[in-house]
Amino acid sequence: MEWRHRDLIDIDCWEKEEILHLIDQARNMEDLLDRPIKKVPALRGKLIVNLFFEPSTRTRVSFELAEKMLSADVVNWSASGSSTAKGETLRDTAWTLESMGADAIVIRHGAVGAASYLQRKLKHASVFNAGDGAHAHPTQALLDIYTASKHFSSLEGMKIAIVGDIVHSRVARSDMIGFKKMGCDVVVSGPKTLMPPELEYYGVKYLSDPKEAVRGANMVYLLRIQRERQEEGLFPSLDEYFKLFGADEELIALAEKDALVMHPGPINRRVEIDSAVADGPQSVILEQVRSGVAVRMALLYLCLGGAR
Fold first, then answer.
1. Is 282 annotated as a binding residue?
2. Which residue, 56, 234, 252, 296, could crosslink 66 as a Cys pair with Cβ 3.0–4.6 Å?
3. Does 86 count as an annotated binding residue?
4. Is 224 annotated to bind ligand?
5. Which uninterrupted H or E stretch holds 52?
6. Mean pLDDT per 10-residue section of the chain, whose length is 308 residues
7. Does 264 show up as a binding residue in the annotation?
8. Edge-first strand listing for the sheet containing 104-109
9. 296 annotated ligand binder
10. For the Aspartate/ornithine carbamoyltransferase Asp/Orn-binding domain, which residue ranges apply (predicted)?
11. Is 265 assigned to a binding site?
């Protein structure tokens, strides 16, 4: 198919066929991870800047690995030690980097809409959203869909239960959109104080009892408590949260016997997930990490002209 995207701000405008095409490309890219020499010249000569205003391990490192495996030149920028400390605006920082020859900017920012703002302001460089506030994390949704697709022949009609802090989670929003596009039945659960009011807009169902949400699910997706984004008092304590909503072996046993246990990381053990579940046979958490490199390689390859 002819690829029409040069940026990735969100996946709400993507078609199912485009997600499937990216998955096909990611399968080819994942083969590269097992080769003795993990590099192809697809993006040789391209300059990519990773512009991270928030802490990150998995997203930042996997983007960097993806860029280097495709032979792009990579600059890792961080807010500390930069001119933003002197008052430089996001727009001026991005314009400066584009003037230095950046072909693409990968941005993570605490403000909702930061990636979309850059897309409008930059003249030539592509923009990839690595997470903007509590709004969207599109590459996480794509790697989650890719991981699930490796275990099931089709996601059509499958049930995914997303349990945890929905209202503060950019992963939750992108996953709800992405898995619905793939034809999944999406159910969410967690404290009512951590639920957004617009769940019906996404076509998902809320069940206050996590046992009912997980019952018969093909995928159980646990979300980290976003303590850095939320007010105090939204639930009594972390211990109380684990007792009511934490994923232990008893909860997972209610799902289908081949159900996948997923988590975007970093995990808080004995908060949203028990170690026996996180490290158990149904867990694909580390597989998600590996998928992240392959999916981001495929995305950069398609959007930056490697396919052409």
1. no
2. 296
3. yes
4. yes
5. strand 47-52
6. 94 97 97 94 97 94 98 87 69 93 96 96 97 97 98 98 95 98 98 92 96 98 75 73 95 98 95 97 98 98 81
7. no
8. 73-78, 47-52, 104-109, 126-132
9. no
10. 156-302
11. yes
